[in-house]
Automatic annotation (TrEMBL):
The species this protein was found in: Streptomyces avidinii
Enzyme active site: 334
Name of one Pfam family that matches: EPSP_synthase
Family per similarity comment: Belongs to the EPSP synthase family.
Pathway membership, UniProt: Metabolic intermediate biosynthesis; chorismate biosynthesis; chorismate from D-erythrose 4-phosphate and phosphoenolpyruvate: step 6/7
Annotated binding of 3-phosphoshikimate, by residue: 30-31, 35, 186-188, 215, 334, 361
NCBIfam families: aroA
Subcellular location: Cytoplasm
GO molecular function: 3-phosphoshikimate 1-carboxyvinyltransferase activity
Stated name of the protein: 3-phosphoshikimate 1-carboxyvinyltransferase
UniProt function note: Catalyzes the transfer of the enolpyruvyl moiety of phosphoenolpyruvate (PEP) to the 5-hydroxyl of shikimate-3-phosphate (S3P) to produce enolpyruvyl shikimate-3-phosphate and inorganic phosphate.
Catalysed conversion reaction: 3-phosphoshikimate + phosphoenolpyruvate = 5-O-(1-carboxyvinyl)-3-phosphoshikimate + phosphate
Primary location group: cytoplasm
Keywords annotated in UniProt: Amino-acid biosynthesis, Aromatic amino acid biosynthesis, Cytoplasm, Transferase
Organism placement in taxonomy: Bacteria, Bacillati, Actinomycetota, Actinomycetes, Kitasatosporales
Amino acid sequence: MTETPALPALWPAPLADGTVHATVTVPGSKSVTNRALVLAALASEPGWVRRPLRSRDSRLMSDALRAMGVGIEETVSSSSAGSLNGAVGGEAWRVIPAALHGPTTVDVGNAGTVMRFLPPVATLADGDIRFDGDPRSYERPLGQVISALRTLGARIDDDGRGALPMTVLGGGALEGGTVEIDASNSSQFVSALLLSAPRFNQGVEVRHVGGNLPSMPHIRMTVEMLRAAGAQVDTPEAGGEKNVWRVTPGALLGRDMVVEPDLSNAQPFLAAALIAGGTVTVPDWPRRTTQPGDALRRIFTEMGGSCELTDAGLVFTGTGKIHGIDVDLSEVGELTPGIAAVAALADSESVLRGVAHLRLHETDRLAALTKEINALGGDVTETADGLHIRPRRMHGGVFHTYDDHRMATAGAVIGLAVKGVQIENVATTAKTLPDFPAMWADMLAGDVGGAGAPGAGAGA
Ligand SMILES: O=C(O)C1=C[C@@H](OP(=O)(O)O)[C@@H](O)[C@H](O)C1
Ligand SMILES: C=C(OP(=O)(O)O)C(=O)O
């Protein structure tokens, strides 16, 4: 892989000067890795997490679990158990559960999975677990998790704002029981309470009351991974009451979990084929998955691409001609920045709906996308629950990222078609992708297409 030199404060996004032809191996899923770590840490016996994502968010998760007493040994395995499609070897983390204890401080960075999934774990520890993080973590909502845990028997010291910093006064166990929460701001509130619930004395019944619950695939991911670890979970899908999940108390098993590639992080690479034309292949694309990124097969096909799931992985082809789209993204909100970037280069307008909760993500993504695309000459307006994007010829300039990995990759996508785009703080991609600039350069170097500007209608 191309070596990344020290990253400049303003990273010149490379222009695609021909079609793209590349095979891009995408690192493991953030959402799967961080769930696998939590479940393995709460198990009654050691287990393995294979092909984990190694990034800032997964590092924060493993450091936090270690600080509470869990053993995590990082090894490179040569066995075939770490493969998805028969390939041999890969990185594997051995997770050795232990009695959880404080006192310690958990740095959540700006990782939603760490700030929401770990407070319930901390209630099981003996001692005080303080939670702190990046400035943005003080603004991201946590109040529903804090009040739910109190209802279930936890003692928590906070300043009453429903956000970090706060301290869980772990008592070594949690009673559990039934709790109502409004998870319309983040599906992670539900996932957080379910993941630790097999270890609560009474398990849990979580009842979502409130507006539309976003990111349902991520809740299904939680349920499937809990079941794979031996938990009994009742869900609305399995004939249960709508918006009610029940987890029975019981031991979690030490499993051998293989992490799928992060399909949401495949997005910028697939977008490159859509914009520049050509083909990008992503190996190990799962045939069945709960990851929301799988929806890209449908969404990017509607926007002008075509794809085939083969033994080599997902083979995605674009022509450089992009169509606008009217789409509800509430189930797959984390795909919005990448879709907005492509939509800004389309031949017709787009309406992205159902994602008001993105205002509470790494940054206010609706405001940030509007401001930054418009600063390059685009024409985006914020709606109550999304974006209205009218493609317009764009020009170069600085694309600010607000410490948001998906803003940085969205800017790089636009930069493929618009000359002179500079991404401020591209290093923020390390939240979930270890080496995005090198991967991007490698993808473009794989180009065997002819010269000429990419076919994007609104490009420079
Ligand atoms: O549970 C998870 O792993 C995630 C759930 C989603 O959160 P929201 O429901 O807050 O959007 C998603 O956007 C985030 O990237 C990861
Ligand atoms: C919303 C996201 O992250 P987090 O896990 O921090 O919520 C994201 O990755 O798009």
